[in-house]
């Protein structure tokens, strides 16, 4: 886990997915702990599945005073993502992708994205998405990766800084609950399988 400068990254501006208002990232952890889920793309099938998985924790997070926030790297696909009700938390957009860069979320190249998309973790995640009827599309930035940042109230410390190594990487629900010291009733779903037809989506 790389060091995260919460002061620096906290100044990055995000656009609220509902109101269009710009807010500083640090405002999201000012009054409560926050789970920040950085999606690769709003149209990504595997990202949509991961969003539904993380959303299983939302009632337990809310009951414990923890905010759940999704961040996308562009507005493209946001409308479909919201209409699909894949995520139960607040949604923001990092149009400059500054937080993605500051947090070390890598960008693939045209040469590295296909092998990454064909990896077992991605195939497994896509299979779970298919099994749950979650579809995706190829719209938007196919080269951005994501991850997760969990920050204590007031920015006191970083509890988790998770960087996707492949598009199918994600934190287990029990790990998220454990680091926050909460008990969760959520049951993890079957992760979908990722292949060329799915994971580059």
UniProtKB/TrEMBL annotation:
It is an enzyme of class 1 (oxidoreductase). One of its GO terms (molecular function) is prostaglandin F synthase activity. It comes from the Eukaryota. It catalyses: prostaglandin H2 + [thioredoxin]-dithiol = prostaglandin F2alpha + [thioredoxin]-disulfide; prostamide F2alpha + [thioredoxin]-disulfide = prostamide H2 + [thioredoxin]-dithiol. Its EC number is 1.11.1.20. GO terms for biological process: prostaglandin biosynthetic process. Keywords: Cytoplasm, Fatty acid biosynthesis, Fatty acid metabolism, Lipid biosynthesis, Lipid metabolism, NADP, Oxidoreductase, Prostaglandin biosynthesis, Prostaglandin metabolism. It is found in: Cytoplasm, Cytosol. GO terms for cellular component: cytosol. InterPro entries: PXL2A/B/C, Thioredoxin-like_sf. Belongs to the peroxiredoxin-like PRXL2 family. Prostamide/prostaglandin F synthase subfamily. PANTHER family: PROSTAMIDE_PROSTAGLANDIN F SYNTHASE (PTHR28630:SF28), PTHR28630. This is Prostamide/prostaglandin F synthase.
């Amino acid at each position: 886990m790389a060091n995260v400068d919460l002061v620096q990254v906290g100044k990055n501006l995000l656009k609220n997915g509902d109101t269009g208002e710009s807010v500083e990232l640090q405002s999201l952890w000012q009054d409560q702990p926050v789970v920040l889920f950085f999606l690769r793309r709003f149209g990504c099938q595997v990202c949509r599945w991961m969003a539904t998985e993380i959303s299983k924790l939302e009632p337990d997070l809310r009951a414990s005073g923890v905010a759940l926030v999704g961040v996308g790297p562009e507005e493209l696909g946001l409308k479909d993502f919201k209409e699909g009700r894949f995520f139960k938390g607040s949604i923001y957009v990092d149009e400059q992708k500054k937080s993605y860069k500051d947090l070390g979320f890598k960008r693939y190249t045209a040469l590295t994205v296909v092998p990454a998309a064909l990896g077992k973790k991605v195939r497994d995640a896509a299979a779970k998405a298919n099994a749950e009827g979650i579809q995706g599309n190829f719209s938007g930035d196919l080269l951005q990766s994501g991850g997760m940042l969990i920050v204590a109230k007031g920015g006191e410390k970083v509890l988790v800084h998770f960087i996707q190594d492949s598009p199918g990487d994600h934190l287990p629900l029990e790990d998220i609950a454990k680091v926050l010291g909460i008990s969760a009733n959520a049951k993890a779903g079957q992760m979908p399988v990722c292949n060329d037809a799915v994971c580059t989506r």
